[in-house]
Write a structure and sequence with these properties.
This protein is mainly alpha-helical. 58% of the residues lie in helices and 0% in strands. The protein has six helices and no strands. The two termini are 27 Å apart. The relative contact order is 0.18.
């Protein structure tokens, strides 16, 4: 392997990239619930005295309703951009297996979706290569830490 590229643990990398793609899928599928400001009176016990805290519930709700959907969209756009930079087969595999529905399994992808169909071993090689590239790209953007994914070398001591 290239001495400038880190050697990553395959399992750790797979779990980390799958977690990022799961978050992507949740952001895409689950709709954003808009918050509304409460206009009813609150009958909670209030102690008198200066708190030196000012709050504007309406402003907090408005900021939340604007910022959270924008962050979700930015996150999804970033993941789509990373996937778009993969090779054609890798893109197809990642999109079909991880970016669409929850009920798509590996065997469906390599037997029915990829054209021409590939063996399980070839599928695993394509997926491993795609995850490696994605892990590097996600690390550049601060979403993953490569030092947590690096292989631990086993040294024999005398």
């Amino acid at each position: 392997m290239n001495p400038f590229l880190p050697e990553l643990d395959r399992r750790k990398t797979q779990y980390a990239v799958e977690a990022v793609l799961e978050k992507y899928r949740i952001y895409r599928i689950i709709t954003f619930e808009v918050r509304e400001a409460s206009t009813t009176a609150s009958y909670t016990e209030r102690f008198h005295g200066p708190t030196n805290v000012t709050s504007d519930q309406t402003a907090k709700v408005a900021v939340y309703n604007v910022d959270v959907p924008a962050e979700r969209k930015q996150y999804c756009d970033m993941i789509e951009l990373i996937v778009a930079r993969l090779s054609e087969r890798e893109q197809q595999l990642i999109k079909e297996r991880y970016m669409k529905q929850d009920d798509v399994f590996d065997y469906k992808v390599y037997n029915h979706i990829l054209e021409p169909p590939v063996s399980k071993d070839t599928y695993t090689k394509i997926r491993t290569r795609a995850f490696y590239k994605m892990a590097l790209a996600l690390a550049d953007r601060g979403l993953l830490k490569l030092n947590e994914l690096e292989k631990i070398s086993k040294c024999k001591s005398g």
